[in-house]
Amino acid sequence: MPFKFNFSTPSDDTIDDEAHGEHADNFVSDDDDTKALPSQEISRNPEQNVSDMSTIEHNICGAVFRVIRQQDVNDSSSALQVTADSDLVPGVYEGGLKIWECGVDLAEFLINHNIDCKGLRVLELGCGAGLPGLTAMHKEAAEVHFQDYNPEVVENITIPNVALNQCSHCKCRFFSGDWSSLPSTICTEDEAKRYDMILTAETIYNTRNYSKLHQAFQHLLKQSGTIYLAAKSTYFGVGGGTRLFETFLKRGNVFTSQVCLEIQAGVPREILKVTRQTS
């Protein structure tokens, strides 16, 4: 059984019915950032010894990555109070302990479709275990930066996974917190500090976060950059999905999107390629 954070689940009245996909023309934006975790950069702990942690291997199209077992995180970190109550609690815990299937889809897509990462500056948003970012490292990205909402996830999952699979040619940085304050933390006013590629998986399940994600894309992506987004077509019970997000992008009139890959399953999954509109 997968481990989860021990947080209470919000009542149904905290989630707007219109955000559940019943009315695709309505989007509710969560503009109250006072309760959101502030964005911060997280440094590696030099005393953290990943060699003592139990790991499992993920074979992504022939590229083998070692990742920390969730059980080991539970045993080693008092900061992670885990239970089997829920996979995520919006705005509190965003699911970073679990390796979600769309993260694997995106990592496989980068390899199977020969997506060129060599020499690029790459950001993975909502990284969790960081499989897409690790794949970009494997594909010779010059820099890969990882972001997850919860600092405990970055400290106890993401950073150890990068250490286990580190490539000497790749520079890595780590961030936690809400997307709304991430651009100012990274200081992306300078185009050169923005990213050639943004990777993100399973991050559009909650329509309340679409505005924040869209603004992060605007501030963090270079003018000529590319976003690869992996998600389910519909997230039942929470409202988001690829069609709704594409509708949101069209309304913003900043980005254009196309479906790069469709994966047939009980709930279909897709990978979108998102770029800036050209005049």
Fill in the keyword field for this structure:
279 residues; alpha/beta; eight-stranded mixed sheet; 25% strand; disordered N terminus
Q: Strand-and-helix sequence, N→C?
A: EEEEHEHEHEHEHEHEHEE
**DSSP summary: helix tally:** 7
Q: What is the typical, i.e. mean, pLDDT? A: 83
Q: What's the helical proportion of residues? A: 10-25%
Helix/sheet category: alpha/beta
Q: How are strands sequenced across the largest beta sheet?
A: 2-8-7-6-9-10-12-11
For the biggest sheet, the summary is: 8 strands, mixed
What portion of residues belong to β-strands? Answer: 25-35%
Please compute the radius of gyration using only Cα atoms. Answer: 18 Å
Runs in which pLDDT lies below 50 for 5 or more consecutive residues are: 1-24, 75-79
Number of strands: 12
Rounded to the nearest angstrom, the distance between the terminal CA atoms is 50 Å
The general outline is globular
